[in-house]
Protein backbone atom coordinates (compact mmCIF):
# COMPACT_ATOMS: atom_id res chain seq x y z
CA UNK A 1 0.00 0.00 0.00
CA UNK A 2 2.91 2.41 -0.45
CA UNK A 3 2.21 5.54 -2.50
CA UNK A 4 4.75 5.38 -5.31
CA UNK A 5 3.42 2.07 -6.69
CA UNK A 6 0.01 3.63 -7.37
CA UNK A 7 -0.97 5.75 -10.38
CA UNK A 8 -1.51 9.44 -9.76
CA UNK A 9 -4.30 11.75 -10.93
CA UNK A 10 -2.44 14.55 -12.68
CA UNK A 11 -3.44 17.83 -14.31
CA UNK A 12 -1.09 19.53 -16.79
CA UNK A 13 -1.82 23.23 -17.25
CA UNK A 14 0.28 24.59 -20.10
CA UNK A 15 -0.51 26.72 -23.16
CA UNK A 16 2.38 25.27 -25.23
CA UNK A 17 0.45 22.48 -26.89
CA UNK A 18 3.49 20.44 -27.98
CA UNK A 19 4.97 20.41 -24.52
CA UNK A 20 1.60 19.70 -22.87
CA UNK A 21 0.71 16.78 -25.10
CA UNK A 22 4.16 15.23 -24.98
CA UNK A 23 4.14 15.44 -21.18
CA UNK A 24 0.60 14.03 -21.02
CA UNK A 25 1.50 11.11 -23.28
CA UNK A 26 4.61 10.34 -21.25
CA UNK A 27 2.70 10.35 -17.97
CA UNK A 28 -0.16 8.29 -19.41
CA UNK A 29 2.33 5.69 -20.64
CA UNK A 30 3.67 5.56 -17.10
CA UNK A 31 0.18 4.55 -15.98
CA UNK A 32 -1.09 7.85 -14.55
CA UNK A 33 -4.52 9.40 -15.13
CA UNK A 34 -3.85 12.69 -16.90
CA UNK A 35 -6.04 15.64 -17.85
CA UNK A 36 -4.87 18.68 -19.79
CA UNK A 37 -5.82 22.36 -19.65
CA UNK A 38 -4.46 25.17 -21.81
CA UNK A 39 -5.40 27.99 -19.46
CA UNK A 40 -6.26 28.68 -15.83
CA UNK A 41 -10.03 28.74 -16.32
CA UNK A 42 -10.00 25.33 -17.99
CA UNK A 43 -7.85 24.06 -15.12
CA UNK A 44 -10.33 25.35 -12.53
CA UNK A 45 -13.18 23.68 -14.41
CA UNK A 46 -11.30 20.38 -14.25
CA UNK A 47 -10.64 20.89 -10.54
CA UNK A 48 -14.31 21.58 -9.89
CA UNK A 49 -15.19 18.23 -11.40
CA UNK A 50 -12.46 15.98 -10.12
CA UNK A 51 -9.76 15.70 -7.49
CA UNK A 52 -6.14 15.75 -8.70
CA UNK A 53 -3.17 14.59 -6.67
CA UNK A 54 -0.77 16.97 -8.44
CA UNK A 55 -1.17 19.86 -10.91
CA UNK A 56 1.82 20.86 -13.06
CA UNK A 57 1.21 24.53 -13.83
CA UNK A 58 3.10 26.75 -16.26
CA UNK A 59 3.88 30.15 -14.78
CA UNK A 60 3.13 32.09 -17.98
CA UNK A 61 -0.39 31.27 -19.01
CA UNK A 62 -2.60 33.47 -21.18
CA UNK A 63 -5.25 35.25 -19.05
CA UNK A 64 -4.81 34.30 -15.39
CA UNK A 65 -1.14 33.55 -14.74
CA UNK A 66 0.12 30.33 -13.16
CA UNK A 67 0.63 32.12 -9.86
CA UNK A 68 -2.88 33.54 -9.93
CA UNK A 69 -4.20 30.06 -10.64
CA UNK A 70 -2.19 28.75 -7.68
CA UNK A 71 -3.70 31.48 -5.50
CA UNK A 72 -7.20 30.54 -6.65
CA UNK A 73 -6.55 26.85 -5.95
CA UNK A 74 -5.55 27.71 -2.39
CA UNK A 75 -8.46 30.17 -1.92
CA UNK A 76 -10.92 27.49 -2.93
CA UNK A 77 -9.34 24.97 -0.56
CA UNK A 78 -8.55 22.56 -3.38
CA UNK A 79 -6.15 20.06 -1.86
CA UNK A 80 -4.04 19.45 -4.95
CA UNK A 81 -0.26 19.74 -4.81
CA UNK A 82 1.00 22.31 -7.34
CA UNK A 83 4.32 22.27 -9.16
CA UNK A 84 5.14 25.50 -11.01
CA UNK A 85 6.99 25.42 -14.34
CA UNK A 86 8.82 28.40 -15.73
CA UNK A 87 11.00 29.28 -18.69
CA UNK A 88 13.50 31.27 -16.69
CA UNK A 89 14.87 30.66 -13.26
CA UNK A 90 14.53 33.67 -11.03
CA UNK A 91 14.74 33.48 -7.30
CA UNK A 92 11.84 35.93 -6.92
CA UNK A 93 9.50 33.74 -8.95
CA UNK A 94 10.42 30.66 -6.99
CA UNK A 95 10.00 32.40 -3.66
CA UNK A 96 6.65 33.84 -4.69
CA UNK A 97 5.38 30.46 -5.88
CA UNK A 98 6.45 28.72 -2.68
CA UNK A 99 4.89 31.47 -0.57
CA UNK A 100 1.60 30.93 -2.35
CA UNK A 101 1.74 27.25 -1.47
CA UNK A 102 3.39 25.62 -4.50
CA UNK A 103 5.28 22.57 -3.36
CA UNK A 104 7.93 22.62 -6.08
CA UNK A 105 9.38 24.69 -8.86
CA UNK A 106 10.96 23.51 -12.15
CA UNK A 107 12.83 25.49 -14.78
CA UNK A 108 12.52 24.50 -18.44
CA UNK A 109 14.02 22.58 -20.10
CA UNK A 110 13.98 19.45 -18.01
CA UNK A 111 13.68 15.72 -18.72
CA UNK A 112 10.12 14.40 -18.36
CA UNK A 113 11.37 11.70 -16.03
CA UNK A 114 12.34 14.53 -13.69
CA UNK A 115 8.76 15.90 -13.69
CA UNK A 116 7.39 12.48 -12.86
CA UNK A 117 9.81 12.12 -9.99
CA UNK A 118 8.93 15.57 -8.63
CA UNK A 119 5.23 14.73 -8.93
CA UNK A 120 5.78 11.61 -6.87
CA UNK A 121 7.63 13.57 -4.23
CA UNK A 122 4.85 16.18 -4.16
CA UNK A 123 2.20 13.50 -3.91
CA UNK A 124 4.09 11.70 -1.19
CA UNK A 125 4.34 14.94 0.76
CA UNK A 126 0.59 15.47 0.37
CA UNK A 127 -0.02 11.91 1.50
CA UNK A 128 2.16 12.38 4.57
CA UNK A 129 0.26 15.51 5.52
CA UNK A 130 -3.00 13.67 5.01
CA UNK A 131 -1.72 10.73 7.03
CA UNK A 132 -0.83 13.12 9.84
CA UNK A 133 -4.38 14.42 9.80
CA UNK A 134 -5.66 10.84 9.74
CA UNK A 135 -3.46 9.86 12.67
CA UNK A 136 -4.66 12.84 14.65
CA UNK A 137 -8.24 11.84 13.93
CA UNK A 138 -7.46 8.25 14.84
CA UNK A 139 -5.90 9.15 18.14
CA UNK A 140 -9.24 10.68 19.04
CA UNK A 141 -11.28 7.79 17.76
CA UNK A 142 -9.28 4.61 18.11
CA UNK A 143 -9.50 2.56 21.22
CA UNK A 144 -6.89 -0.08 21.95
CA UNK A 145 -7.70 -3.45 20.42
CA UNK A 146 -9.61 -5.79 22.74
CA UNK A 147 -9.27 -9.54 22.68
CA UNK A 148 -12.40 -11.36 21.54
CA UNK A 149 -13.28 -13.74 24.35
CA UNK A 150 -15.11 -16.96 23.49
CA UNK A 151 -14.58 -20.68 23.15
CA UNK A 152 -18.07 -21.80 22.23
CA UNK A 153 -18.58 -23.58 18.90
CA UNK A 154 -20.24 -20.44 17.47
CA UNK A 155 -17.26 -18.27 18.40
CA UNK A 156 -14.73 -20.79 17.09
CA UNK A 157 -16.51 -20.77 13.76
CA UNK A 158 -16.47 -16.98 13.84
CA UNK A 159 -12.71 -16.86 14.43
CA UNK A 160 -12.24 -19.18 11.45
CA UNK A 161 -14.36 -16.93 9.24
CA UNK A 162 -12.56 -13.77 10.38
CA UNK A 163 -9.25 -15.27 9.29
CA UNK A 164 -10.75 -16.29 6.00
CA UNK A 165 -12.52 -13.06 5.03
CA UNK A 166 -9.94 -10.67 6.55
CA UNK A 167 -7.38 -10.77 3.73
CA UNK A 168 -9.93 -10.68 0.87
CA UNK A 169 -10.40 -6.89 0.90
CA UNK A 170 -14.09 -7.39 0.11
CA UNK A 171 -16.93 -5.46 1.70
CA UNK A 172 -18.32 -7.35 4.68
CA UNK A 173 -21.59 -7.20 6.53
CA UNK A 174 -21.59 -8.21 10.19
CA UNK A 175 -25.00 -9.07 11.56
CA UNK A 176 -25.88 -9.55 15.17
CA UNK A 177 -27.86 -8.14 18.03
CA UNK A 178 -26.69 -5.04 19.83
CA UNK A 179 -23.72 -5.64 22.10
CA UNK A 180 -22.62 -8.93 20.53
CA UNK A 181 -19.24 -7.48 19.59
CA UNK A 182 -19.70 -6.44 15.97
CA UNK A 183 -17.23 -3.60 16.23
CA UNK A 184 -14.70 -5.88 17.89
CA UNK A 185 -15.07 -8.34 15.03
CA UNK A 186 -14.68 -5.54 12.46
CA UNK A 187 -11.38 -4.58 14.10
CA UNK A 188 -10.26 -8.20 14.09
CA UNK A 189 -11.04 -8.44 10.35
CA UNK A 190 -8.99 -5.33 9.74
CA UNK A 191 -6.12 -6.82 11.73
CA UNK A 192 -6.14 -9.88 9.42
CA UNK A 193 -6.07 -7.72 6.29
CA UNK A 194 -3.25 -6.03 4.40
CA UNK A 195 -4.71 -2.76 5.70
CA UNK A 196 -3.78 -3.67 9.29
CA UNK A 197 -1.42 -0.74 9.73
CA UNK A 198 -3.70 1.71 7.94
CA UNK A 199 -6.50 3.74 9.54
CA UNK A 200 -9.53 2.04 11.04
CA UNK A 201 -12.26 4.62 11.28
CA UNK A 202 -15.70 4.03 12.74
CA UNK A 203 -18.98 5.79 12.21
CA UNK A 204 -22.27 4.94 13.85
CA UNK A 205 -25.20 5.91 11.66
CA UNK A 206 -27.62 5.68 14.60
CA UNK A 207 -25.60 7.91 16.89
CA UNK A 208 -25.53 10.88 14.49
CA UNK A 209 -28.38 13.26 13.78
CA UNK A 210 -29.67 12.56 10.29
CA UNK A 211 -28.55 15.94 8.89
CA UNK A 212 -24.97 15.31 10.01
CA UNK A 213 -24.47 11.81 8.62
CA UNK A 214 -23.77 13.06 5.11
CA UNK A 215 -21.18 15.65 6.05
CA UNK A 216 -19.56 13.30 8.57
CA UNK A 217 -19.18 10.54 5.96
CA UNK A 218 -18.45 12.56 2.84
CA UNK A 219 -17.11 15.85 4.24
CA UNK A 220 -18.23 19.35 3.39
CA UNK A 221 -16.97 22.59 1.88
CA UNK A 222 -16.84 25.80 3.86
CA UNK A 223 -20.21 27.61 3.71
CA UNK A 224 -22.10 24.64 2.26
CA UNK A 225 -24.63 24.85 5.12
CA UNK A 226 -25.19 26.96 8.22
CA UNK A 227 -22.47 26.05 10.66
CA UNK A 228 -20.02 24.83 8.01
CA UNK A 229 -17.45 27.44 8.99
CA UNK A 230 -14.51 25.50 7.63
CA UNK A 231 -13.91 22.88 4.97
CA UNK A 232 -13.82 19.44 6.52
CA UNK A 233 -12.86 16.11 4.93
CA UNK A 234 -15.30 13.29 5.58
CA UNK A 235 -14.55 9.98 7.29
CA UNK A 236 -14.11 8.29 3.92
CA UNK A 237 -11.16 10.59 3.28
CA UNK A 238 -9.84 10.10 6.80
CA UNK A 239 -10.01 6.33 6.23
CA UNK A 240 -8.37 6.52 2.79
CA UNK A 241 -6.10 3.51 2.33
CA UNK A 242 -7.70 1.81 5.33
CA UNK A 243 -11.03 0.55 6.60
CA UNK A 244 -14.26 2.32 7.41
CA UNK A 245 -16.54 0.56 9.88
CA UNK A 246 -20.10 1.71 9.26
CA UNK A 247 -22.07 0.64 12.31
CA UNK A 248 -25.87 0.40 12.22
CA UNK A 249 -25.92 0.72 8.44
CA UNK A 250 -29.64 -0.03 8.53
CA UNK A 251 -30.08 3.49 9.94
CA UNK A 252 -28.39 5.14 6.93
CA UNK A 253 -30.90 7.69 5.58
CA UNK A 254 -32.42 6.67 2.23
CA UNK A 255 -31.13 9.82 0.52
CA UNK A 256 -27.53 8.85 1.27
CA UNK A 257 -27.76 5.26 0.16
CA UNK A 258 -27.02 6.02 -3.54
CA UNK A 259 -23.99 8.05 -2.46
CA UNK A 260 -22.61 5.13 -0.47
CA UNK A 261 -23.32 2.82 -3.38
CA UNK A 262 -21.14 5.00 -5.63
CA UNK A 263 -18.20 4.87 -3.25
CA UNK A 264 -18.53 1.11 -3.12
CA UNK A 265 -18.72 0.88 -6.90
CA UNK A 266 -15.83 3.05 -7.99
CA UNK A 267 -14.42 4.72 -4.88
CA UNK A 268 -15.66 8.15 -5.93
CA UNK A 269 -17.45 10.72 -3.80
CA UNK A 270 -18.23 14.41 -3.53
CA UNK A 271 -18.12 16.51 -0.39
CA UNK A 272 -21.34 18.29 0.57
CA UNK A 273 -21.40 21.60 -1.33
CA UNK A 274 -18.79 20.53 -3.88
CA UNK A 275 -18.97 19.31 -7.45
CA UNK A 276 -15.47 17.94 -7.29
CA UNK A 277 -15.10 14.20 -7.56
CA UNK A 278 -12.49 12.61 -5.36
CA UNK A 279 -11.40 9.06 -5.28
CA UNK A 280 -10.76 7.03 -2.15
CA UNK A 281 -9.52 3.54 -1.55
CA UNK A 282 -11.46 2.33 1.46
CA UNK A 283 -12.62 -1.11 2.56
CA UNK A 284 -16.07 -1.02 4.06
CA UNK A 285 -17.13 -3.23 6.90
CA UNK A 286 -20.75 -2.60 7.79
CA UNK A 287 -22.75 -3.85 10.74
CA UNK A 288 -26.41 -4.09 11.52
CA UNK A 289 -28.73 -5.51 14.12
CA UNK A 290 -31.73 -5.24 11.83
CA UNK A 291 -33.18 -7.83 9.54
CA UNK A 292 -31.94 -6.28 6.31
CA UNK A 293 -34.17 -8.37 4.08
CA UNK A 294 -37.14 -7.02 5.98
CA UNK A 295 -35.73 -3.47 5.61
CA UNK A 296 -35.50 -4.02 1.86
CA UNK A 297 -39.00 -5.47 1.71
CA UNK A 298 -40.49 -2.39 3.38
CA UNK A 299 -38.45 -0.05 1.17
CA UNK A 300 -36.15 1.34 3.87
CA UNK A 301 -32.97 -0.05 2.35
CA UNK A 302 -31.87 -0.30 -1.29
CA UNK A 303 -31.45 -3.82 -2.52
CA UNK A 304 -28.47 -2.97 -4.80
CA UNK A 305 -26.62 -1.41 -1.87
CA UNK A 306 -27.37 -4.43 0.30
CA UNK A 307 -25.78 -6.76 -2.27
CA UNK A 308 -22.74 -4.50 -2.48
CA UNK A 309 -22.09 -4.47 1.27
CA UNK A 310 -23.06 -8.07 1.74
CA UNK A 311 -20.37 -9.60 -0.50
CA UNK A 312 -19.58 -11.70 2.56
CA UNK A 313 -21.49 -11.79 5.78
CA UNK A 314 -20.75 -12.86 9.32
CA UNK A 315 -23.47 -13.54 11.83
CA UNK A 316 -22.65 -13.08 15.50
CA UNK A 317 -24.59 -15.36 17.81
CA UNK A 318 -26.33 -13.68 20.75
CA UNK A 319 -24.87 -14.44 24.16
CA UNK A 320 -27.87 -16.55 25.24
CA UNK A 321 -27.01 -18.97 22.42
CA UNK A 322 -23.46 -19.45 23.64
CA UNK A 323 -23.83 -19.61 27.36
CA UNK A 324 -20.54 -21.53 27.66
CA UNK A 325 -18.84 -18.18 27.03
CA UNK A 326 -20.49 -16.40 29.98
CA UNK A 327 -18.05 -17.75 32.63
CA UNK A 328 -15.09 -16.84 30.42
CA UNK A 329 -16.43 -13.34 29.89
CA UNK A 330 -17.04 -12.88 33.63
CA UNK A 331 -13.52 -13.98 34.35
CA UNK A 332 -12.17 -11.68 31.66
CA UNK A 333 -14.03 -8.58 32.83
CA UNK A 334 -13.88 -9.07 36.59
CA UNK A 335 -10.76 -7.64 38.10
CA UNK A 336 -8.36 -9.96 39.92
CA UNK A 337 -9.20 -10.65 43.56
CA UNK A 338 -12.98 -10.43 43.15
CA UNK A 339 -15.34 -13.27 44.11
CA UNK A 340 -18.97 -13.97 43.19
CA UNK A 341 -21.42 -15.71 45.55
CA UNK A 342 -22.86 -18.91 44.03
CA UNK A 343 -26.47 -17.62 43.70
CA UNK A 344 -25.25 -14.39 42.07
CA UNK A 345 -23.10 -16.42 39.68
CA UNK A 346 -26.09 -18.62 38.94
CA UNK A 347 -28.17 -15.52 38.10
CA UNK A 348 -25.45 -14.27 35.75
CA UNK A 349 -25.31 -17.64 34.03
CA UNK A 350 -29.10 -17.99 33.75
CA UNK A 351 -30.10 -14.54 32.53
CA UNK A 352 -30.86 -14.09 28.84
CA UNK A 353 -28.72 -10.95 28.25
CA UNK A 354 -30.80 -9.18 25.60
CA UNK A 355 -28.10 -6.48 25.52
CA UNK A 356 -25.49 -9.26 25.13
CA UNK A 357 -21.84 -8.81 26.13
CA UNK A 358 -22.18 -5.04 26.57
CA UNK A 359 -24.97 -5.57 29.09
CA UNK A 360 -22.95 -8.24 30.90
CA UNK A 361 -19.98 -5.87 31.16
CA UNK A 362 -22.26 -3.12 32.50
CA UNK A 363 -23.75 -5.49 35.08
CA UNK A 364 -20.30 -6.56 36.26
CA UNK A 365 -19.07 -2.97 36.46
CA UNK A 366 -22.16 -1.92 38.35
CA UNK A 367 -21.82 -4.86 40.74
CA UNK A 368 -18.21 -4.01 41.56
CA UNK A 369 -19.30 -0.50 42.47
CA UNK A 370 -22.15 -1.76 44.68
CA UNK A 371 -20.34 -4.66 46.33
CA UNK A 372 -18.41 -4.66 49.59
CA UNK A 373 -15.24 -6.59 50.32
CA UNK A 374 -14.67 -7.61 46.72
CA UNK A 375 -17.56 -10.06 46.92
CA UNK A 376 -20.48 -9.80 44.50
CA UNK A 377 -23.82 -10.90 45.93
CA UNK A 378 -27.32 -11.09 44.41
CA UNK A 379 -28.08 -7.63 45.88
CA UNK A 380 -25.35 -6.10 43.74
CA UNK A 381 -26.87 -7.28 40.47
CA UNK A 382 -29.56 -5.47 38.43
CA UNK A 383 -33.18 -6.50 39.23
CA UNK A 384 -33.83 -8.22 35.95
CA UNK A 385 -30.77 -10.44 36.35
CA UNK A 386 -31.75 -11.35 39.91
CA UNK A 387 -35.28 -12.23 38.82
CA UNK A 388 -33.93 -14.56 36.16
CA UNK A 389 -31.74 -16.29 38.74
CA UNK A 390 -34.52 -16.74 41.30
CA UNK A 391 -37.26 -17.85 38.89
CA UNK A 392 -34.91 -20.14 37.05
CA UNK A 393 -36.36 -18.95 33.76
CA UNK A 394 -34.10 -17.81 31.03
CA UNK A 395 -36.28 -15.03 29.81
CA UNK A 396 -36.72 -11.74 31.64
CA UNK A 397 -39.50 -11.18 29.16
CA UNK A 398 -41.86 -13.71 30.63
CA UNK A 399 -44.07 -11.21 32.43
CA UNK A 400 -44.89 -8.61 29.77
CA UNK A 401 -45.01 -10.93 26.82
CA UNK A 402 -48.26 -12.68 26.11
CA UNK A 403 -48.21 -16.26 24.94
CA UNK A 404 -49.74 -15.39 21.60
CA UNK A 405 -47.00 -12.90 20.75
CA UNK A 406 -44.34 -14.46 18.63
CA UNK A 407 -42.89 -11.69 16.50
CA UNK A 408 -39.41 -10.61 17.55
CA UNK A 409 -40.45 -6.96 17.27
CA UNK A 410 -43.21 -7.49 19.83
CA UNK A 411 -40.77 -9.11 22.23
CA UNK A 412 -38.33 -6.26 21.74
CA UNK A 413 -40.93 -3.57 22.30
CA UNK A 414 -42.36 -5.35 25.38
CA UNK A 415 -38.88 -5.66 26.84
CA UNK A 416 -38.12 -1.98 26.25
CA UNK A 417 -41.36 -1.04 27.97
CA UNK A 418 -40.50 -3.26 30.92
CA UNK A 419 -37.05 -1.74 31.32
CA UNK A 420 -38.48 1.78 31.00
CA UNK A 421 -40.91 1.01 33.81
CA UNK A 422 -38.17 -0.45 35.92
CA UNK A 423 -36.01 2.65 35.41
CA UNK A 424 -39.01 4.91 36.12
CA UNK A 425 -38.94 6.36 32.63
CA UNK A 426 -35.30 7.45 32.83
CA UNK A 427 -34.20 6.84 29.25
CA UNK A 428 -30.49 7.21 29.85
CA UNK A 429 -30.60 4.50 32.53
CA UNK A 430 -32.95 2.35 30.45
CA UNK A 431 -30.60 2.57 27.45
CA UNK A 432 -27.69 1.58 29.66
CA UNK A 433 -29.59 -1.39 31.08
CA UNK A 434 -30.55 -2.45 27.56
CA UNK A 435 -26.98 -2.09 26.41
CA UNK A 436 -27.83 0.28 23.56
CA UNK A 437 -27.16 3.90 22.68
CA UNK A 438 -29.67 6.43 24.04
CA UNK A 439 -30.40 7.72 20.55
CA UNK A 440 -31.19 4.21 19.47
CA UNK A 441 -33.60 3.80 22.37
CA UNK A 442 -35.39 6.97 21.22
CA UNK A 443 -35.66 5.55 17.73
CA UNK A 444 -37.03 2.26 18.99
CA UNK A 445 -39.55 4.03 21.22
CA UNK A 446 -40.68 5.99 18.18
CA UNK A 447 -40.67 2.98 15.87
CA UNK A 448 -42.76 0.80 18.20
CA UNK A 449 -44.78 3.75 19.43
CA UNK A 450 -44.03 2.78 23.02
CA UNK A 451 -46.08 4.77 25.50
CA UNK A 452 -45.06 4.86 29.15
CA UNK A 453 -47.26 7.04 31.26
CA UNK A 454 -45.60 6.57 34.58
CA UNK A 455 -47.76 3.78 36.03
N1 LIG B 1 -16.53 -11.73 22.68
C1 LIG B 1 -16.18 -10.61 23.31
N2 LIG B 1 -15.05 -10.58 24.03
C2 LIG B 1 -14.67 -9.45 24.71
N3 LIG B 1 -15.39 -8.33 24.71
C3 LIG B 1 -16.51 -8.29 23.99
C4 LIG B 1 -16.97 -9.42 23.26
N4 LIG B 1 -18.12 -9.09 22.63
C5 LIG B 1 -18.37 -7.81 22.94
N5 LIG B 1 -17.41 -7.31 23.75
C6 LIG B 1 -17.37 -5.96 24.35
O1 LIG B 1 -18.74 -5.57 24.48
C7 LIG B 1 -18.89 -4.20 24.16
C8 LIG B 1 -19.86 -4.08 23.00
O2 LIG B 1 -19.27 -4.61 21.84
P1 LIG B 1 -19.43 -3.91 20.43
O3 LIG B 1 -19.47 -2.43 20.56
O4 LIG B 1 -18.40 -4.49 19.50
O5 LIG B 1 -20.90 -4.44 20.07
P2 LIG B 1 -21.80 -4.15 18.82
O6 LIG B 1 -22.38 -5.44 18.41
O7 LIG B 1 -21.01 -3.37 17.81
O8 LIG B 1 -22.95 -3.25 19.45
P3 LIG B 1 -23.94 -2.19 18.75
O9 LIG B 1 -24.76 -2.95 17.73
O10 LIG B 1 -24.78 -1.70 19.88
O11 LIG B 1 -23.07 -1.14 18.14
C9 LIG B 1 -17.53 -3.67 23.84
O12 LIG B 1 -17.00 -3.10 25.01
C10 LIG B 1 -16.74 -4.90 23.45
O13 LIG B 1 -15.37 -4.74 23.70
UniProtKB/TrEMBL annotation:
Residues spanning the signal sequence: none
Xref: InterPro entries: AAA+_ATPase (IPR003593), AAA_lid_NorR (IPR058031), CheY-like_superfamily (IPR011006), Homeodomain-like_sf (IPR009057), HTH_Fis (IPR002197), P-loop_NTPase (IPR027417), Sig_transdc_resp-reg_receiver (IPR001789), Sigma_54_int (IPR002078)
Molecular function GO labels: ATP binding; sequence-specific DNA binding
Keyword Transcription regulation in record: yes
Ribonucleoprotein is among the record's keywords: no
This protein's UniProt keywords: ATP-binding, DNA-binding, Nucleotide-binding, Phosphoprotein, Transcription, Transcription regulation
Domain Sigma-54 factor interaction: 148-369
PROSITE patterns referenced in this protein's UniProt entry, alphabetically: RESPONSE_REGULATORY, SIGMA54_INTERACT_1, SIGMA54_INTERACT_2, SIGMA54_INTERACT_3, SIGMA54_INTERACT_4
Lineage, opening ranks: Bacteria, Pseudomonadati, Planctomycetota, Planctomycetia, Planctomycetales
Location of the Response regulatory domain: 9-123
Protein name: Transcriptional regulatory protein ZraR
GO terms for biological process, alphabetical: phosphorelay signal transduction system; regulation of DNA-templated transcription
Entry superkingdom: Bacteria
4-aspartylphosphate PTM sites in chain numbering: 58
Organism, scientific name: Maioricimonas rarisocia
Amino acid sequence: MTGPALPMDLLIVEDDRDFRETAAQWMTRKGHHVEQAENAQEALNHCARKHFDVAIVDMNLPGLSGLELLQQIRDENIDTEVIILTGEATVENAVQAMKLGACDYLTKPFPLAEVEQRCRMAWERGRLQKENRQLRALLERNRPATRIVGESAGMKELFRLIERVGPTDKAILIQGESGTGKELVARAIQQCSHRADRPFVTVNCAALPEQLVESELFGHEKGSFTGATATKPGLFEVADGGTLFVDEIGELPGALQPKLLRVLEDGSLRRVGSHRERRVNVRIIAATNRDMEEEIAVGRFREDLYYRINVMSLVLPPLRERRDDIPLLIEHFLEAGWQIEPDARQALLTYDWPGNVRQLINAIERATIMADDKLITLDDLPHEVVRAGSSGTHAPLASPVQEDICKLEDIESAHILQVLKQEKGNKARAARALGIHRRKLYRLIERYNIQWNGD
